[in-house]
Amino acid sequence: MEQIYHLVVRYGAMRVLGLFSTRELLPRGSEVIARTVRGLEHGTVLSPATPAATAQLHDADRGEVIRLLTADDRHRLDQLRLRMRQEYAIAQRLVAEHRLQMQLVDIEHLFGDERIVLYFLAEKRIDFRELVRSLARELQCRIELRQIGVRDEAKLLADYGDCGKPVCCNTHMTVMLPVTMRMAKLQKATLDPAKISGRCGRLKCCLRFEHEVYEELQAKLPAVGSRILTRKGQGRVLDHEILAQRLLVEFEDGRRLPVHLSEVLTSLGAHSDTAMEGRP
């Protein structure tokens, strides 16, 4: 009986991750033509679908790898890229003709010609039924319009982040979880939104990546405002250095010194003047 393997494959303009069956165990980076829930698409093999890999995927689509990318397939992909430029121009013209308050972001023409997907931004709900009919007449293909948010726009168009690496939303991220200013405050990042925002204009996703570690380490430290007994004497906690596991302590004689957690002998409870400060 022929053995069936399973791979994690990334495909589509939105770089979706899916679980795909194959009759050949292909190495990472292999370019393939795969059958997805939408039709035939170009994809890239990321890894075997091990339990550890599949645990990172949430409600992953499933499909089948048809073949490794051939020279003819690559030539067709080049032709489709040229066609998509023309189709994008046509779509922009029709959006203007229909006077719709929407911004066309990107266009995706599936490898198997099953459909053309147009991604757009809009501040409110858009009735694009007439636009779809016009597009279908001109492009002679099934049309799908998808309204996206600014984080999805970055996923489609952004290249590199401030760190010099490809943006996370365009590489390994599968779920766009919310990021809050509280996470930035806990990590003592600058609170200037312009300096901690990504290509999408929203707070950087890397703030969330490290948040759990900061919370875990902060939980080991006495709360800001509490009184502690150390080898240097009694004092009040003024601030935390979470990653270094150090405290800024004001001692009874007025000295303010950094103290490592290992030097804390016991916690004496909250100071009456600072009990309401709590942790940041």
Distance between the termini: 61 Å
Sheet with the most strands: spatial strand order: 1-2-5-3-4
CATH names the topology of one domain as GMP Synthetase, Chain A, domain 3
Q: Identify the CATH architecture of one domain.
A: 2-Layer Sandwich
| Residues in β-strands, percent | 25-35%
- What is the structural class? alpha+beta
Quaternary state of the chains: single chain
Order of helices and strands: EEEEHEHEEHEHHHHEEEEE
The radius of gyration computed from the alpha-carbon positions, rounded to a whole number of angstroms, is 27 Å
Largest sheet: 5 strands, mixed, barrel
Q: What do these coordinates show?
A:
The protein has 280 residues and is of the alpha+beta class. Among the domains are: 5-68, no CATH class; 74-148, GMP Synthetase, Chain A, domain 3 (2-Layer Sandwich), CATH 3.30.300; 226-270, SH3 type barrels, CATH 2.30.30.140. It is built from seven helices and 13 strands. The strands form three sheets. It has a five-stranded mixed β-barrel with strand order 1-2-5-3-4. Strand 6 (103-109) and strand 7 (116-121) form a beta hairpin. The longest helix is centred in the N-terminal third of the chain and has 27 residues, at 71-97. The radius of gyration is 27 Å and the shape is elongated. The N and C termini lie far apart (61 Å). Mean pLDDT is 89; it is low at 272-280.
